[in-house]
Every structure is written in structure tokens, then in C-alpha cells.
Amino acid sequence: MRPLRRNKNSRGLLPGYTLVALAVLAVAEVFLFLKVPVVQDYFYILAWWPYIILADGLIYKQRGWSPIKGRPVGFLSLVTWSVTIWLIFELFNLRLQNWHYVELVSNPCFRWPGYTLAFATVLPGLFETYYLIKTLGISEQVKTRPFAITPTIEKTFLTTGLIFLAFSVFLPKYFFPLVWGGFVFLLDPINARMKGPSLLKDLSKGRPQKAIQLLVAGMVCGLLWEFWNFWTKSKWIYTVPFVGDIKLFEMPVLGFLGFPPFALECYVMYNFACCLGLAVPWEQEVNKKKMGWHIFVVLAIQIAFWFFVFSLIDQHTVHSFH
Fold this sequence. Notes:
By secondary structure, this protein is mainly α. Helices cover about 65% and strands about 5% of the residues. The longest helix is centred in the first third of the chain and has 27 residues, at about 35-65.
């Protein structure tokens, strides 16, 4: 991965789109508390897209480079895969029953595009926050002792990942939290084997910075997710066994511990798709001439998958429409 660099913004100016995003977010907040119906229905989208653009602008101000301006193709790939990856967790939730949605728009012609635009913010929100944290220099000087990635370590990670995911599905009442980490153990050593970005590989070289920054990004985004969700009409509500009574916003307090590993999980899952050639890398420059038409075939398959899961969400996860 090339380091973040200064190259086109020597005066450290905020790009114009940052101010527009800040204005949209401020207006959305005001209209939310004025209980404007369309804002109550779509506030998640009206909050998170401006936040993503605002974070991108702040990164550009400091570095003269940002994910949107510097790697737009990778960012667009991140947007589409954000929907797909989040919907994998929606499928798990059909078994876990840890959250449900209330007061959603009844017309699917408006609701399904809303799903798409909302779920498309998950990975961009996390990774823009990660880059912002990296830009601020948080944990950049932290180092750990290097170690060799042995076959035993790889097998231990793979086995742990399989156990985590299996237990969360077959014994969800007691092991539901394991879904927020299973893919990290399962897929990251595979990414390392395929010579892709890997947290395990970074740790083996004594470089824990990225893992720490992703963990912090996960907690920051988790707090924003829950804060903005709490005030809206169309929202999600949790039904978590054992720990659901003590809450911060709508989230059981202990549930916030799931956001940091969720950020690691999103990182690992997206890079696994990149290693398979199904997604465009977002941490490195891409030769556009080498991008095949198969990317569009993958996108078509993803959209079909979206529609399938959207219908399941409507049937099993949405508790009320209006």
C-alpha cells in the first residue's frame, strides 16, 4: 500500500464539497428535530453520506489526497460491496434475531432504494474514518514483536473462525456475539496466503497500527450509528439475550464491544473479495486497463443477491411499516 501523501493541496484548503456536506448534515439534523416526515424516514442516509464526504474532505485537507478524489473506482467498488457484505450479516440475523426495523416506508419502490443507499455507507463510513484516524497519526508509532506465520497459526485461525460462525448459527442464544469476529479468523489467513492485505501478516511484521486504527474506527462509527439512529422514526431496535436491558441509545451497552471487531471483519471480508478478483482494491492504485468486464457481471450478481435479501428483510426483520 502506498503511504498517504501530500501532492495537490499544498495550502491545506478544505474542498468545496466538504462544506456542502456539512451544511446538508446540519440541515438534516434541524429537520429531524422539527419532525419533517421525509427526513425522519431517511435520516440515516442524510446523516451518513454527508459524514463520509466530510471525512473525505478533512483527509484531503491534511494530505492532498483522499479515497474519493484519489481512488474513485476503488471507492465505487467499496460502495457496492458494502451493501453485499452488510446483507451477509442480515442473513445471519435471520437466525440470531438480534435486531429488527420499525416504521419503515411501506412502498418498496422507496424502501428498497433506501436499503441500498443506507447499507452502501457501512464500509465507506468505516474506512473513511480509518483513514481520518490514520491521518491524525493515532497509533502510528506503535510496534510489536514480529513472529512467523506458521501452519499451526493458520490452522488455528481457520478453525477458530469456523467454530465462531458455527456456534453463532447453531446456538445463537448463547454465542450470537461470535458472528462479529468469525470472518476475521476465517478469511484473514487466506488473504495472507493469496498475498493480499492481511491483518495477521501486518502483525507478524510487528505492525499493529492498522488493526488498532480499524478498531478505533469501528467504535467511532458504532457511536455515530447508535446516536443518529436513536432520534429517528424509521430505525432499528435490538432484542439481544441477557444484556438487553442496560442501553446507551438503542444499543445494549455491552453491544458496543462488537463494533471494533466488526470493523476488522469488514476490512478482511472486502479484501477477500479483492483477492478473488471480485472487487477493486481500495488501498492501492489500480490499473484501469486491467479491470475486466467480469466486474460488471459480479455487480449484476450482487444486485440480484440484494433483491433476494431485501425480500427476506421485509418478511422477517421489519416489524412495522407506515
